[in-house]
Protein 1
Amino acid sequence: MLGGEGGIPIYAENLVRALARLGGHTLVLWAGSRRMREGVRQYAPSGAQIVEPGFAGRLIARAGLFARANPLPVEWMVGRVDVFHGLNYLLPSHRGRAVRVVTVHDLSLLRHPEWHPTVRARLHRWPMRATLRGAHHVITAAEAVRREIIEEV
């Protein structure tokens, strides 16, 4: 997310900056792959820890199960954290002790799958529903999206 173009990367960058300004906590940023680590590092505030999936996480990702049926707890993915926040409708795991928070910008993946690449629409429809059910907290930027989530789930 960090370093990309569009609304969601901008949201991610602003959120990371705001959390860093709050202080009093350790900010752990997840780079979903080794390839993404440099992009995350470029926007990481001083003192932030950057983690990426370990061996088990990479195996699950290669099998295409990462966002669909990951049996591992969040802590196996990122280490011990109090809160894990997925910034774009998916969480890497629905298990673990960490409070799981997800931001959902819209439900176009569920309501208008034709707007998305076919593979994404097929692979992420079920995980998005599972994330909405498995998250402790869901953040939306609009009341209309909140209502749609309540209707959908």
Protein 2
Amino acid sequence: MTNREKMATDFKDVKLIFQKVGVRFFSIKGTCLGAIRNADFIEWNTNIDQAVFATPEEKSAIRKLLIEEGFVVDDLLDHITALRNTKVNIYRVLFDGHRFYVDNVSPIYFKKENLDTLVSATLGEQSCFTQESPIEHLVDLYGNDWATPKQK
């Protein structure tokens, strides 16, 4: 199984878990980059990054379902790392009183208006959601030349 096939399989199952729990979710970081730039997973990317609007109880339900699906789960305060075929990072979307963000260690901020409506993007043979203006997110993370592929 190729890296893309592994990522596609895990992404499909994670999406189904989010839908079962009933949480809104969207792709961030390299997963968003792949969807917007390539309409596919980035060949050399080694993980899937998703942000979820989840209460602590919903996060626990996600964790339980991931384990049932065969993922090995590391449950951190506001972040779940799940490993099966590939690594999946699931970040809870938090609000600090002024703006939305994910990841307390190295925060990524989002404008509220960009999260009001999530938009669909192609990711391989599947679809994913991104924030309404994903290019702002990509410029913030990767700079103005975000569209130029760079293998690490």
Protein 3
Amino acid sequence: MGTQAERDIVGTIDSEVRYKRQTGIYNPTDHDTHVTVIGLGNIGSHATLALARMGVQKFTLVDFDTVEEHNLASQAYLRRHIGMSKTEALADMVSEISDAHVTLYESAYDETIPVHDITVIAVDSMDTRYEIARMIKKHYPPISSSLLRPSAV
């Protein structure tokens, strides 16, 4: 893993250097984007890590589930995460990538949980996705999604 000094150097990488290859797509120094991810399975776990790698610095993660061995085949989790809540495990992985601020809700989504600039609805059930979209639209219009039929929300 390297010496303490090597680990300290890695932790002090300048964000302009770290993210210079994608600043034409998303420049974290120009944005204060807060992303809410609801459902931290296959889509939600990988989307969160991709966004952290792009430089998003604020996340709200929502899931009631724990990491199980069968999740390792398709989700972003590692063996060390088995038995942990998906929110804690994903926050652990985000912390390995960046210094993002992560807020955790170890529950199913409900209307008391705030959503932010971007919301990724990545729960397994399409019916549940529609219901969450309806709840969000009621409090935070407008909603746009490539995964939901316009008539569904």
Protein 4
Amino acid sequence: MNTAGGRWTRWAYRERSGTTASSFTARGRKFHDLRFLKVVQRDDIDVLVSTPELRERIVSEGIARERIYLVNLGLDYDGEIAQRDTVLRRCGITGPFTVVVGTIEPRKNHERLISAFHMARNTSPELGQLVLVGRVGWGELHIPADVLWFSDL
């Protein structure tokens, strides 16, 4: 696997994965268009995707399949349990929780996520509390009082 000079170049072109262009600012669209062209033109940049469907869409755009790696979402925590529990308690998390990490902005549709989470938790209480971790990117979002939000972790 080519790591482009010792560093991974991570890239996801959301417009090609189904997000509408109106979900981006003009500057964001320009950034993604230029990034996409750079990825297509340079064989030394590998692509990480989270779904087989996105891999196929990127292949159809002309990027060789050998440059595209499928990565699983999620995290397995191998650290010290006591240290983990201390951090969670300090953050006010005392039971099971579902965490979402990423910049808070309209194109990520957090409002729908929060609404869906509330509906799902009614039938699956093991989901616990919803925790958002991420700085505000652009736009506004109303975060209900029962959702924990950390913008500076």
